[in-house]
Amino acid sequence: MRALILAVGLGGLIPAGPLAAQDPPGDPQAGRQVANMCRTCHGLDGYAQVPIAPHIGGEPATYLSAQLRAFRSGEREHEMMSVVAKNLTDEQIANVAAWYASHTATAVLPDGFDAAAAPTLCSDCHGADGIAVVADAPHLAGENRVYLETQLNAFRTGQRTHDIMTPIATELTDGELREVADWFASIELEIAGP
Ligand code: HEC
Ligand code: HEC
């Protein structure tokens, strides 16, 4: 995904530094095998099968591999994902990220929703319809409300840290946090295979 972005010319905005070096292009077909370990929770196509797991199909490979490495190192913690990620090799991470990233996520705003009413504080990166418009940001469309609130609270408390999301989440009031989670959770997500 990163290589693709560099190729289409946004490269000037994304320095090809050490991060790029950690992201060798994965093999989606080999990743499909790895995804057998993930499917009970995330589905083989990345459409979550259980309410606490996020949809990951069609997410940028850079985002997916960064999160898997964070779970593996303990930088991000979760009772299920920490166990899953602990034994993944760099190659498995690159491959499974490539597999899920090879899908396409499409969002549909429900009736009565107007894209103009999307929270602008979020839509610059996550899109009005929750399909991310910047390379390193995840889609939020159709994620479970509880998942979104949990992650925003994790950024607030420092349990999860990110140079952009930590200050954004910290400045939200409780009411705003519920409102923005509500917006993205209400959107319908579809995931199409490669
Ligand atoms: C037993 C259920 C389960 C299995 C199996 C599982 N996951 Fe997860 N996964 C979760 C849950 C729950 C979360 C949310 C963690 C949190 O709340 O921080 C998650 C989060 C993630 C995230 C972060 C997504 C985001 O939007 O930030 C990624 C990436 C991920 N899983 C990939 C995988 C991959 C790849 C596998 C297989 C190798 C896998 N998971 C196996 C339950 C599971
Ligand atoms: C300038 C870009 C930017 C803006 C604006 C922004 N985000 Fe993010 N967001 C990101 C990036 C990048 C990540 C990935 C963080 C990481 O790697 O851990 C992220 C991650 C998240 C996550 C975690 C999703 C997951 O799947 O685990 C949530 C939830 C989130 N953002 C919600 C919001 C909300 C709500 C707003 C508006 C109030 C917002 N973001 C505004 C860039 C942005």
Structure description:
The chain is mainly α and about 190 residues long. The chain has a single domain, classed as Cytochrome c-like domain (Cytochrome Bc1 Complex, Chain D, domain 2). Strands 1-2 form a two-stranded antiparallel ribbon. Helix 5 runs antiparallel to helix 7. The relative contact order is 0.15. The N terminus is likely disordered. The site of one heme C has 20 residues, from helix 4, helix 5 and helix 6.
Set out the fold topology.
Layout: H1 2-7, H2 18-21, H3 28-34, H4 39-42, H5 61-73, H6 81-86, H7 90-101, E1 104-108, H8 120-126, H9 145-157, H10 165-171, H11 174-186, E2 188-192
Antiparallel strand pairs: 1-2
Bound molecules: heme C (HEC) (2 copies).
One heme C is lined by residues 34, 37-38, 40-42, 52-54, 56, 64, 67-68, 78, 80-81, 84, 96, 138, 150.
